[in-house]
Amino acid sequence: MSNNKFKFLARASLLVLCSLLLLFGTHARTLRPTHPYPAPDFSLRDMNGNPVRLSSFRGKGVVLNFWATWCAPCRREIPWFIQMQKKYGPRGLQVIGVSMDDGGNKAVEQFVDKTGMDYPVLFDDGHASSVYGATEILPTTYYISRNGKVVAFVKGVISKDKVEDNVKEMLEKPAAASASQQQSAR
Asked: Cα–Cα distance between 108 and 110 in angstroms, integer?
């Protein structure tokens, strides 16, 4: 077998393997910490260059999504986050996208305009993604309760229905916790 044929077969095999892993090998699921913990705070720049602190969204349920324009699973779930923001924003949801792109702001801005992302998009500085463990797998999404605690996270992509279930649960959680806290205080 010639060297060129071998290289072609090796690349084709690798492509098939990667495709199969992408289709069947991702077992993303929602993970819930036994004890919700405070979401690490950070300040990142938005698309206008303004600093945005995560803690400024306290009181809202936050979906913190680490993504990139070149990430196919990320592109698949972004329309779901747009829909969730529209549907649950009035009930206190705030989706925040953190771009992991290296190619500069222009490509991200074009992508945001093209997709109609209507929620804050911030640019990662390396620190936020590291603190949240979002450097290994994209997308990585954290669900942060109104009181600033991480109640769930997902590494990879899950179904739209599961995303919505996570959003509903996150938005309901603080009210239930507050009611039980009030009863125990009596």
From this structure: 5
